[in-house]
Amino acid sequence: MELLRINVRGVVQGVGFRPFVYQLATKYNLRGWVCNTSEDVKIEVEGRKEALDHFLVDLEQLSPPLSHIEDIYSTNRAPVGYPSFEIRHSIAEEGKYQLISPDIATCQACLQEVLTPDDRRYRYPFTNCTNCGPRFTIIKDIPYDRPRTTMHRFQMCPECQGEYDNPLDRRFHAQPNACPRCGPALELLDAEGNPVTCSDVISTASQLLKNGKIVAIKGLGGFLLACDATNQAVINLLRSRKMRPFKPLAIMVSSIQEAKEHCYVSGEEEELLTSAHSPIVLMKWKPDSSVSQAVAPNLKYLGAMLPYTPLHHILLRETGLPLVMTSGNLSEEPIAKDNDEAIRRLSHIADYFLVHNRDIYARYDDSVTIVERGASQIVRRARGYAPYPIHLSFKSQQILGCGAELKNTFCLTRDEYAFLSQHIGDMENLETMEHFEDTIALYKRLFRIEPNIVAHDLHPEYLSTKYAQELATKSANIRLVPVQHHHAHIVSGMVDNGLESPVIGVAFDGTGYGADGNIWGGEFLIADYQRFTRMGHLEYLPLPGGAAAIKKPYRLAIGYLLSLLGEEALNQDLPCLKQVDSLDIDIIKKQIEKKINSPPTSSCGRLFDAVSALIGVRGEIEYEAQAAIELEMVAYDEVDETDSYPISIVEQNGLSLVKLQDFCFFQL
Ligand code: ZN
Ligand code: ZN
Hints:
The chain has 668 residues and is of the alpha+beta class. The chain is built from 20 helices and 27 strands. A hairpin with a 5-residue loop joins β21 (503-513) and β22 (519-527).
C-alpha cells in the first residue's frame, strides 16, 4: 500500500477536473480525496503501486477537454488508511491565484440536448456544462464559484442543483448551470427598447432577420449586429448606420458544410472553425458564394465562424441563411455589453434587440485567425483564448505592459506567465480608454498582480503612455520603463518562439515612434530582451501632412515620387496622379520642400500604401491598412512569387539604409 500527494496546476478548475479525478480513482480502486485550492488541485490517493502508476498516467493523458495541465507534482507519503474516495470542499488561500478558462463554444452533448424535443433543455439558449459555456466573461473574482459570477442572482432549481452536486454528472460544479425553469431568459425589444410581444423570441427574431432587419444580439462578451449576409441592401444600410463603408464584416454559418459552400476550407481551417475556441477564420472566398460582395468589398478573403452558443445554433438553423455578425459598436468604439448601454449606443443602428438577463462582466470580442502555409496565426486574440497566459521561459516580476495605440492589448506578468489581455481596440476614444482601465483592474484582481514596474511605448502622445505616466505620478513606488515599439514587436516574437539569445530582428510595421524621434517601421535590429541596436532600416522618406498621408496614400505616393525621382516624375502618366487635384499636388510639394508637417518615416506599411496608390489600387482609405490589403489582393493569385525587386543598400553613419530609388525606377 502506498500514498501519493499530487498537486496539479493549470486550467483545472471549472472544467470538470475533480469529477474526472473521482472517476479515475474509482476505476483503479484508490481511496483518498481531491480538492480545489486557490492555486491548484490537490489530490491524495492511496492504493497498490501498480494502480497508482496507472492513475498518474491517465491523469495526464485523459484529462477533460477544457483542462490544460501546466504541471503535475507528486510525492510519496505514509499511508493513512482512507476508507473511500471523496471530493472535499474548496480551500481559499490568501494571495494565491489560478488560471482561468476562456469562454468555450457549446459542446456536442449540450447541443444534442438543445435540439432534442423531449429534453428539458430543448431550445434553451443558455445550456452549458463543465465542458462548455461562459467562463471569463462572467467571473468577477476568484475562487471561481457561482456567487462571484454574474450567475449569482439565479437560484438553481432542484433538478439543476442535483446535477451540480453529483460528481458523476456532466454539470457537477458547472457554475453557469441553468435551465428554462431557473436560468436566464431572452427578451425581444424594438429599437427604442420597448418589449415586443411574441410567443417565441428566437423564431420571431429569425423571421425579422429573414425580412431584412438588423438585430443586435447579446452574446457572450457583448452585442453583435446581425443581418442577412446575402442581402446587399441591408448590409449597405448597416454600413451606413455604423459609419463603416468598406471594412470587412464577419459572417456566421450554421455548420462546417455551409462554410464550405462559401469558402475553400483546408483541413487546418476546418480544425480551427470546429475547435472549442471557435474563432473567426479568414478563408479564400468562393466566387459562386451567395454571400454578398458588400460583406467584404474588394477582398478575396471572407471571415467566417460557426455558432458558439445554443442561441446562435438555433437562430442559424431557423433563418437558414448565413448571417453577418459584427461587433455591436459604432466605428472604432468598443463592443457594447450591457442592455441599457446597447440600446443607448446602438438604437440608431439596430432595428431590434435580442437581449437576456445574464450580465456580461468582461467585454470580449470574437477572435480572428488565419491559416498561412499550414500554420494558424491569431490576428485578434479574445474570445476562446484570453485570459489564458503566454508561458515564459523564466520567472518574471510583476509588470504591467500598457501596449500601443492601435489594436491595443495590455499584458500583466507574474511568475512564469504573461497574461495578455483580450483585444481592447484602438485607443482613440473615451469608451475604449475606460474598457482598457476596467480590464486592467479585472486582470490585476483575478491573477492577484500588483505591478510596480510599468512599461509603456516610447510614443509620448499615445493614451496608453499617458496612462502609464499618470500611474507613476500617483505612486512613488512605480518605476516606468519606456520601450521602443519595434523592439517590443521583436521581443514578442522571441517569446512566442522561445528564443533566448540575441536575434537579428526584422520589424516591418506601419508606424512606431523611433529612438531618434522619427517614425520607424522598416527596421533591422539586433536585439535581446533588454536592449537593441538599430543596424539598418528603409531609407527615410517624407510623410507629407503626417496623419493625413496615412488616410490619403496618394499624398505618400507623390511624396515618394518627388523625393526619389524629382519633379519630372510628376509628368509621367501615372494612375494616382489622375485622381488628384493639381492644387493638392502643389501643397504636397511645398510641404516637402519646406519640411512643413512632413516627418521622415522608414515605415514599411507606408511603402505598401505608396505602391498601392501609385499603381492606382487605392489613393484614400476608410479603415487601417486598406490600401495595403487591397494591394495584397492584386498579388493574391501569385503568392508563390519568389523574385525580388531591385534595391540598393548604402552605409551611412554606421547604419545600412535600404534605398528605394532603383525599386521606384523599376516600377516606372
Ligand atoms: Zn456542454
Ligand atoms: Zn434549473
